[in-house]
Specification:
Elements (H helix, E strand, L loop, with lengths): L1 E5 L3 H12 L3 E6 L11 E2 L8 E2 L12 H10 L3 E4 L3 E4 L5 E10 L2 E5 L8 H22 L8 H7 L4 H16 L3 H5 L3 H8 L8 E4 L2 H10 L4 E4 L5 E4 L7 E5 L2 E5 L1 E4 L3 H7 L5 H8 L3 E9 L15 E4 L8 E5 H4 L10 E4 L10 E10 L5 H12 L6 E3 L11 H18 L11
Parallel strand pairs: 1-2, 1-14, 2-10, 6-16, 14-20
Antiparallel strand pairs: 3-4, 5-9, 6-7, 7-8, 11-12, 12-13, 15-18, 15-19, 16-17, 17-18
Length: about 425
């Protein structure tokens, strides 16, 4: 079959790669000059071989990312464990809580030094964390979390507010890159499932050669890749031949199937003949804008150098979201002895202009009680007979919208497309 995939993020690259493996003729359309998965990455001047840093940083841990882990293994992508210990500071830059990681190979155990518990607030946070883990795991195992938000769950369980406001909600907002109120609305089942998936046992990992190596492997074998494609619209044929036309900067092309690997709102804007059901399903997914800044300004780190961690959250009541600054030197081994370099996500403060390396802006899906219905509506669309237009992305699977959900949705859609063409996907995988 002749298939178009629109969007070169991890979902689009994975869908195109999977379909290419089934011997389909795949054309990938990307609006950036390079695939979107690496479009915002930066090359550092003055480093050996022009070292690249992923923007945003791409990390995972196997417990919550089984599909991504299998994909990297299939591609032969080498991965390495990284230290993702985290500090939490207030508006004054003073540390109020910190966890560290004890690591042995692929295993990692978070712990807190006794001196880090000297302040009563830190002790209440630690006690709240232990109570939350016990209560959330028990409720998850009993199936008692359906429908409740994490904010409702911690209120019902009387979890210490110092832990909820000082660690839990900032952590959710940092992982999901959203506002604190968005984090409070997260389904409790999603948060408990994330916490129970081995976060306290498995080391956080990254692709050893970064996202560029992953993208290169996924691009291999794709028939055509059009960057800066300028896709303007997608329209299904009115002549009964089942084709779908992609209108783009270089002309119009007809395909047997089109996979949207963009955000839901972008896909809806491009689909010129969206049905009422498609419009309702895609418009139900909501997004939050965010900024990621690469810089060399240490003033965005905790005040005391001894308090610096690989990840540093700044939590202030006057800001709607926590600020998270990653000390890149601690998570990218080749930079260990270089001048400090930082990646700040959702900045509350602006780094000095002369210390800024790059700025990138994204939109991230929000997760709340409405997602269950939205995902069910999307699956109903995918199950319709004769379907020729499909959707995948981090928003299109249950859970925290991360690399895992993006890859999982892409694999699922690739299988749906191949089955829609009357082919068993398992019969056409290269050995």
């Amino acid at each position: 079959m002749n298939i178009a995939v629109i969007g070169g993020g991890i979902a689009g690259l994975t869908a195109a790669w999977q379909l290419s493996r089934q011997q389909h003729r795949v054309t990938l359309f990307e609006r950036h000059a390079v695939p979107g998965f690496v479009a915002s990455s930066v090359t550092l001047d003055g480093t050996q071989a022009g070292l690249r840093v992923d923007v945003p940083l791409r990390v995972f841990y196997p417990g919550y990312y089984p599909t991504l882990t299998r994909l990297y293994a299939e591609l032969g992508v080498a991965t390495e464990p990284v230290d993702y210990a985290t500090s939490f500071s207030g508006a004054d830059g003073g540390l109020y809580f910190r966890w560290r990681n004890a690591r042995w190979g692929s295993w990692s155990v978070p712990y807190v030094w006794p001196q880090d518990l000297a302040h009563p607030r830190a002790r209440r946070i630690a006690a709240g964390a232990l109570r939350f883990q016990r209560r959330a795991r028990a409720a998850l195992a009993a199936g008692a979390l359906n429908g409740a938000s994490i904010g409702e769950f911690v209120a019902d369980e009387r979890i210490a507010p110092e832990f909820v406001d000082g660690l839990l909600l900032p952590a959710i907002a940092t992982i999901g890159t959203c506002h604190t109120q968005d984090a409070r609305a997260y389904p409790a089942q999603v948060v408990a499932g994330y916490a129970a998936a081995g976060l306290a046992r498995h080391s956080v990992r990254r692709a050893s050669d970064g996202a560029d190596a992953v993208a290169a492997q996924l691009l291999a074998g794709i028939h055509q890749v059009h960057c800066q494609a300028g896709v303007q619209a997608v329209r299904r044929s009115q002549h009964g031949d089942g084709s779908v036309t992609v209108l783009h900067a270089r002309g119009d092309e007809a395909f047997d199937h089109v996979v949207f690997a963009t955000q839901a709102n972008q896909a809806l804007a491009l689909l010129a003949d969206a049905t009422p059901d498609e419009t309702a399903a895609l418009s139900a997914f909501r997004y939050r804008a965010l900024e990621v800044v690469m810089h060399r300004d240490p003033t965005l780190m905790p005040t005391r150098r001894t308090d610096w961690s690989p990840v540093n959250a700044r939590v202030c009541a006057e800001h709607p979201q926590p600020e998270s600054t990653i000390w890149i030197n601690r998570v990218q081994p080749a930079l260990r002895h270089a001048e400090p370099i930082f990646q700040t996500v959702m900045p509350q403060r602006a780094p000095r202009d002369d210390r800024v390396i790059s700025r990138a802006r994204f939109e991230r899906p929000l997760v709340d009680a409405g997602n269950t219905a939205a995902l069910a509506a999307l699956q109903r669309l995918h199950g319709q007979p004769g379907r020729r237009v499909w959707w995948c992305g981090s928003y299109a699977e249950a859970g925290v919208p991360l690399l895992e959900s993006a890859v999982r949705s892409a694999v699922g859609v690739a299988s749906c497309v191949t089955r829609a063409g009357g082919v068993d996907p398992s019969l056409h995988r290269p050995t």
